[in-house]
Amino acid sequence: MSERPQRLQKILAQAGYGSRRACEQLILQGRVRINGQVVTQLGVQADPQCDVIEVDGKRVQLSEEHTYILLHKPAGVVTTRRDAHAARTVMDLLQSVSAAVFPVGRLDADTTGALLLTDDGELAYRLTHPRYGVPKTYLVEVRGEVGEEALRRLREGVLLEDGMTAPAQVQKVRYLAGRRTTLLRLTIHEGRKRQVKRMCMAVGHPVVRLHRERFGHLTLHQLPVGAWRYLTDEEIVALRRAVGLAS
Ligand code: URA
Questions:
Q1: pLDDT of residue 64
Q2: What number does the ligand 1 atom closest to the CA of 136 have?
Q3: Is the pLDDT of residue 90 over 70?
Q4: Catalytic annotation present for 108
Q5: Helices 121-128 and 233-242, packing angle to 10 deg
Q6: Could you tell me if the CB of 210 is within 6 A of ligand 1?
Q7: More exposed terminus of the chain, fewer Cβ within 10 Å: N or C?
């Protein structure tokens, strides 16, 4: 077990109640109790070994064993735990998984590729925090023939409405003359909303197709579209180490 006492939102995240931010919301909404007392402040600490922590009246179980899943997300599926509009979600593809996993970050509905799901809230929080700069590699098909100037701008940083993007690695894979599109391989270390599409649009090349090949060091290998697999122990250790968590 990790050090104790700890901040309440960290304990809840580790117990699988979502990201640390989502857990802060649970606290602010008055849904969390420690030893029978409702807690609505964020600085409060608890000892998960001794204190009785409840969410919505249910005792929080700290599981030592977390579940880590890599999904080959198909197009047309929404990255969310639940969808009020009854769209098909990534969770529909994981119906045989009993753990309360949730997606780490987001892929747009039309984006395909590597999506990590876990119930390890602390790891999820760190993997999506800009401080850790986890690399994400995309194969991108964009309209038109991408020239040197656009490549340079993508590499050095593009001004978007939420600020400059951090330096990215960009490789021109090839120009597809028949389709009048260019294939790029692009690695970013941030995870802003629709970032790749906005970056490419900003340099004059709208995205036609977007596929995430790699998340951190995780790759899909031969995983078919729509299929998922558990991470190996080695992958879990490497992922945790990459964001400063002891294995
Ligand atoms: N960038 C995007 O624009 N969309 C995605 O789905 C992922 C990264």
A1: 63
A2: 8
A3: yes
A4: yes
A5: 50
A6: yes
A7: N
Contact partners, residue 81, CB within 8 Å, separation at least 6:
89, 91, 102, 103
Taking only the tens place, the pLDDT of each residue in 20-53 is 888 999 999 999 999 999 999 998 999 877 888 9
Q: Are 59 and 53 in contact (CB under 8 A)?
A: yes
What is the residue-averaged pLDDT of the chain?
91
136 Cβ below 6 A of ligand 1: no
Measured CA to CA, the distance from residue 20 to residue 18 in angstroms comes to 7
For the chain, domains (ranges, CATH) are: 6-59 (3.10.290.10), 68-128+221-242 (3.30.70.580), 135-215 (3.30.70.1560)
pLDDT digits (tens, 9 = 90+) for 182-235: 999 999 999 899 999 999 999 999 999 999 999 999 999 899 999 999 998 889
pTM: 0.77
Spot the catalytic one: 92, 108, 120, 233: 108
